[in-house]
Amino acid sequence: MSFSPSHSVKAILGPTNTGKTYYAIERMLAHPSGMIGLPLRLLAREVYQRIVERVGEQAVALVTGEERIVPAKPRYWVATVEAMPMDIHVDCVAVDEIQTAIDFDRGHVFTDRILKARGLQETLLLGSATMAGVVRKLIPHAEIIDRPRFSQLTYAGSKKLSRQPARSAIVAFSARQVYAIAELIRRERGGAAVVMGALSPRTRNAQVELYQNGDVDFLVATDAIGMGLNLDIHHVAFADDTKFDGHQSRPLTPSELGQIAGRAGRHRHNGTFGVTGGTEGFDEELVVQLETHDFQPIKQVQWRNSNLNFGSIEGLRNSLELMPQDKTLTRVPIATDQHALEFLARNEAGALARGHDAVKLLWECCQIPDYQGISPAAHGEIVTRIYSDLRRIGTVRADWIAEQVRFCDNAEGDIDTLSNRIKQVRTWTFVANRKNWLEDPIYWREKTRDIEDRLSDALHERLTQRFVDRRTSVLLRHLKDKRMVSPEINSQGEVRLEGHLIGTLEGFRFTLARNDGDTDAKGLRGAADSVVAPEIHHRAERLAGSPNEEFVLATDGRLRWRGEIVAELAEGDSLYRPRIIMLADETLTGPDLEKVQDRLSLWLRHHINTVLEQVMALEAPADLEGTARGLAYQLFEHIGLLPRAAVADEVKGLDQDVRGKLRKLGIKFGAYHIYLPLSLKPAPRELALILFALKNGGVRQPGVTDIPHIVLSGRTSFLVDPEVDPRLYEIAGFKVAGKRAVRVDILERLADIIRPLVALDAGRPYQGELPAGAAEGNGFRVTVEMTSLLGCSGEDFSSILTSLGYRVRRTPKVVEAPAPVSPAEASEESEALDQVLEAAPASVEPVDEAAAATATLEETGPAEGVVPDAAPADAAPAEPAEPEFDEVWFPGGRRQNDNRRHEGRQRREGEDGQRQNNRPRHGKGPRRPDGEDRGHAGKPHNGKGRPDKPDRGERKDRRPPREDRKPVFDPDSPFAALAALRGKSE
Fold this sequence. Notes:
Shape: elongated
Distance between the termini: 125 Å
Number of strands: 36
Largest sheet: 8 strands, mixed
Number of helices: 33
Radius of gyration: 49 Å
Strand order of the largest sheet: 4-3-5-2-6-7-1-8
C-alpha cells in the first residue's frame, strides 16, 4: 500500500441512507484490486458475502481481529479498520465511517487510516458531513463529495413502548435496558430481535434475519445499528439519550443521535424518529438538526503516533507519548494496549523484552483486545503468559491454551453466561489468528471458530426463547391479514390456532395464553371471542340439561360444572338463600345466560335442602309451640348447633313430653351443646361454613377452606389458629376449649366418662375395684381413655378441662427411700451389678453414687443416733430432683376444703395442695375411735383451742417401717436382678 499522496483522494460525505458504502464497493470492484476497511466485524462479514457473490471466494479475503479467510491470490480485501493490512499495495482503498476518529478507544486508528491508507489509483474516505473540515485540514488536496439523503426523516414525538409502530427499532445503551425493553415488547407485541455490539457477528446476523424476514416487527438495539447495518427500519425510538462511553455517562451529541435516527427509512422510503420509555422529548432546535442533518462540524480527532520506536520498552513508551503537531489532532487517552504495556514492563515479561524484535512482539501482544472487560491486571496476566511463552519456547503452550479453550466449550447456560463465554473465546480466536503464535494455528482457528459458532447459535436460541413469542407473532399477522382460521378446542379447553396455543376456555371464560396487552391484545381478544362464541353457546345448552351429579359446591364458595368453575356464591337476602354470580365472559348473554342462571339456582336450592335436611325442618315444625318452637328456630338460625349455656333457661322449662318431641326431630341435649348429631357430618358442616362465612366476613377469610379438611381427617381435637374467627370452629362442629378446638360430640363423650367419676368418692368404702380415674372427695384423675378420646394430653388436655370449668388440686407424690444395705450385701450386689453390666452394658447408664447417697439422705434424714460423714470440701451440692405431683380434678365452684369431712384425718394443706410446713405426708395414720373429741379439724385439743401437737417421737413412730417401703423396679431393669439377689439373702 502506498503512503505517498494519491492523485485521487475522495471524501464521500453525507448523512445515513445516501448509499456511500454501496458506492465504495462499486468503485473498488471497478479496479483490478482493492481494500475496504469497515467499523464493525459484522458489517465486514456482510460486505465480504456481497463481494463473494460478485467475484467468487478465491478472489476475496476477509481479515478481522477474530477471523482470517485468505485464499491463495485474493484481489480484494475486506477488513475491519484495525485489521487492515497496511503493507499490501492495491489500486483502490476505502475507509468507512471515518467520523469514528473522535472515539476515545478506537479513534486514533481511524485517524491513522485517514492519514496513511492510500490506494495506488483511488482512495475513498466515507463518513458524516461533519468531517468535511477535518478532511480539508489534514488532506488539503482531497476532493469532497456531498451526497444527499435518499429519503426524508421526520420527528414523530413521544409514544409508549407498547404503541410503537411496526418495523420499529427501539434504541437503548446498556444490555440491561435492552433486555428489559425486549421483554416488554415480547409481552405486548409478540417479540423483538436484539442487536448489540457485544454479540458475536453470527448471533447478530441471526437476530437481524429474525427481524428482516418478518418473524418479529421490532428491533431492540444499542447504537451498534448506527454503523452500516442496512435494515428495513421505518421508525427509530430512543428509550434513552445518554450512554456510558467507557469513561463517563454523557448525553449523546446531536451528530450521534442523527447517525442512529438516520437508520429509519431505506432508500426511497421515508422514516421517522421519536422518543419512548420516559425519555424527554427533543427540543425544537435538536429536531431541526436531526431532520436537516445539520450538525456542528468536528474540529478535532483522536491521534496517537504510529511510527513507534521498538529499540527498548522505554523508547516505545516515549514514542507513544509524542504529541501531535497539528491542532486538528489531539492525543488519545491511555488505551488498553498501553495499560497492558505498563503492566508487562513491571514484571518478568519486561526482562524478556530485549532488542527490536522482542519489543515489537511485546507491543503486538499488548494489542490483544480485552473482550471480557476484565481488570487491567487480569488482562495483563493473560498477555504476560502469552508473551513469556512466545519468547521462551517460540509458541504459546498448547496445553495451556487447550485448557482455556476447553473452559469456553460449553453451550449450556443462560444469556449472560453464553455471552461471557463468547467474549472469552474471542480472545483465543484472536490469538489463533496471529501469525506464528501457535504450533498448529489452523487447528486452533477452526477449533475456536467452531466453539464461537456453537455458542453464538445457542445464544441466538436463548434470545429467541426469551424475547420472541412466536405464537403471538403468528396471531398478530393473522389479524393484520384478516385471515383468521378456525381454532381447535380440545377436551381440556385449550384453544389452538395453527398449532399455537392461544388460550384456554374454562367454563364460560376464555383466557388468552399471554399477559394482558394493549391495543393489539384487545384486537386479539375480540377475534378470539368471536371464534369461541359457538363453543360457549353449546356449553350453555349442555349445562341447562345437566343432572345434579355434575355440579359441585367447593369450600371456596365456587360452583363447578364438570370440574370447571362457572359461578360463585355471594351474600344473599337470608342465610340459606345466597346469590349466584356468574363467572363468564360477555359472550354469554341473552337466553343462554338466563338458562344457565336458572339451572344453577335450582341446583343450589336442592343442594341446601338435601344436605341440611334436618336443620331446614326446624324452621317451622308443626307440632311444637311456645318455648320449644323458639328453641327449634334458634337451632335453625345457628345451622343445627347451639351452646347449652345460651338457652339454659329455655331448656330448664321444658317438660319430658316436649323434650321427647324435640328428640324425635333429631335434637340431642348434651352437657355443653344442644345439637343435631346428623348435622355434624362433614358435608353439612362444610356447607354450614360456606353459608355462615358469606354472611360474616366472606369465604376468603382464614379457616373457611382449611377447617373442612380437618373435619374430613377425623381428628377429634386440634390446636386453634389465632387468625381464624372462633365462630368458624363452632359452626364447623367444634368447641374452642383452651388452646384446642374439640369436636362437640367428643366433648359429650368426655362428659359421659367424667360424670360417674365425680359422683363417686374414692375415700369411702367401695365394693369391688374402683373405676379408673376415681379419686377421693368426688374428684377424678385424667385417664388414658380421656386423652385418647381427645387426641392430646399434658398441658393441652389440662387447658381443655380448665376451660370446661374444672379445677385441679396438685399434691406432691411420696418418694420412698431404699433400705440400708449391709457391707456383705453390698459386696454381693457389687459383684452382681458387674455381671449385669457386662451382660447388657448399653442399657444401663452410670449413676453418680455420691449424688444418689446425698439424695437418699435428704429424703429420709439420718438414722437416730447416727451422725453422717462430713461431705468433702470440694463436693458440689446435689440439685434436688423435681417433685412429681398427683393431680385431682374437681367440678368448678367446689372448694377442696368442702371434701375434708369425708376424710379420716386432718389435712394441713394450703390451697396449692401442699402441706403448710412444706413437708409431704407419708401415711394416713390410724382412724380415731368414734366419740373422741376432734376439736379443731377433728384433732384433740390441748385446752387452748388448738389441736395437740404430737411429740417428735410420736410422729416418727407413725412412719411406716423401712422394709415396707421397698422400691419397685422394672422387671427388665438390671437393678431388678440386684433386688432378687437381696431377697434371697434375706
